[in-house]
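Reopening this one. Same input as before:
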Amino acid sequence: MVEIKNKRIIVFASGTGTNFINLYNNVINGKIILLVSNNPNCAAVKFAIQNKIDISIINTYRFPIEKNKNKQYEIVLNSYKPDLILLAGFMKKIPENIIALYNNKIINIHPSLLPKFGGKGFYGIKVHEAVIKSGDSFTGVTIHFVNGKYDKGLVIMQEHVLVDKKDNAITLSKKVLKKEYELYLKVVNLFCK
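Same output, byte for byte:
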């Protein structure tokens, strides 16, 4: 029998980190070896500290010159040699040098069926507000590779979520988040196989 080696996973997160936590608790044949964040006070960082996951804080405060910040991403990632980089509510654009180095190894999750309700400024509750305002009868979750443009990378997998007439942005966000947990985990586990 061939032994499957755990894939080395780095997660980027800026906020509550619920997708990060879900992946940490449930991924098979993968190990989260590092959390990268721009926000040292976020819940994702606190979870990483509690679970003894390495952390790297890279932000404009620590690296006010853009090229130095982009180089720091490269230094950190290259030192950990990830098989996969997962964005889980990371609120900054991934630099071009990192996209070039880790082409087709950076995956993002988005709370709509891209290309609808995607692009700069469409994140979190703003996406769900736009869906409700549109009157669409369904929305969903998209897992996609990251390229140089917001939410424009090749789609890996999507799943629909029905929008009930009684839904508002908050209730819809809860339904979509539940689907996010399932779909992101499915994609990551497939990658780790």
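So the earlier flakiness isn't reproducible anymore. For the record, The chain has a mean pLDDT of 95.
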